[in-house]
Structure prediction request, 449 residues.
Amino acid sequence: MVPEATLTVLRGRRTPDLLSPGERTVHVRGRTVSIPRLWRETFLGFASPMRLSRLCILLLTLPLLLAACRDEQAGPRPRTSRVPSPEQTQPRTLDAAPADLTFRSGATLGGGTVAYLGSRVTPAQASPGQPVMLSHYFQALRQPPEGYGFFVHVVDATTGQMLMNADHDIQNGLAPLATWPLGKVIEDSHTIPMPQSPARVMLGFWRGDERLPVDDPRAQDGINRVLGPTLGDAPELPEYKVPRAKKPPVIDGALEDEAWKEAAPVVLRGSFDGRPTALRTTARLLYDDAHLYVAFDVEDPDIWGTLRKRDDPLYEQEVVEIFLDANADGRTYNELQVSPHDVTFDAYFPARRQGMDLSWDSGMKSAVKVRGTLDNPADRDERWTVELQIPFARLAEVPSVPPKKGERWRFNLYRLEHRDRRDVEGHAFSPLFVGDFHALPRFGWLTFE
Prediction:
């Protein structure tokens, strides 16, 4: 007999709590009985007391039997827990940083609490997309604070634009900052793909909304990211040697003056990657005592533009541009643009992309000649040509007027082409390798002959 207490407990449960309903069956006295029917017979009174006792025992042991008949394809076997060795739970330390570091720093953080000794990049030279291992070396000089994580940012070497976030736990979590033994060197290694453009590694420690302060301003980027190793080599900056004009060109947009034959033509390339462009853009430059002269010859099958006012955002449509950093300080510069409708834009910047001053007047004179039909997408146009006359005296931070022979400025020439009036393609004299025409460190050299 099954004790009444047992029957009470069994009757108080629902079938799925013990067995999953389905097509499973059991054999009872030579006959096959489905599980649902077995339940009905048991609890509706169709079984004898002896039979009920046996069935209850069977039901109590059936889950164990089913578990024992485990399908080997149902999933992985439970892993046997292992006690980790002491080496697996302790941070890996060195007595000193390796001698073959490819980048040495010595920067300290947190008021001399932590020293960043440097990094090793392996391989030192790699192709874009190829895996490279970064190994960083630190040393705790004082007891490190609690609660800080480790961050690694890979940024564009010229603009500082974030290319990759490689944040991770040092030594896979075995070496949080607060656990570092004093005086020992902590090594952390991780792998990233080599960026497509020259880059720099920035690293440090964070907690909530703060970063562990970097002690020396020269060793950081201004927001408490320590300067780490560089990745890849930036292509050499191009140079344009601008000749002095014997006779200044007439500004009519035609480019037919003899003076332009003295200036070497330069073909703009893809601003992002330096590749040849589908549509050709050629530029030339000249100068005299008072002015810089610029000419553009722009191949364009659909010449158009809707902006008609001076200082309209011409950079949102088809336009040619020149950026001039006369004192080559990488900060102050001027931006001048002309559209196919001979609408102009000029601005002064006291710093990269900061304080754009549209009230500044360049005093430039421009002219455009169109070979085609403006604003008509139904036909096929040929080209448009541009001439600019820019007074030296109006430009920012000009070292001397006129420029001395051999004087070198930083500058870039651009074109924005909207293919099918949708897809934007940038052309540049000095390719930028980033999507930013204000990438001042990638400006080329303008040398006055």
About this structure: The CA atoms of residues 269 and 276 lie 5 Å apart. Confidence is low (pLDDT under 50) at residues 1-24, 26-30, 38-47, 63-81.
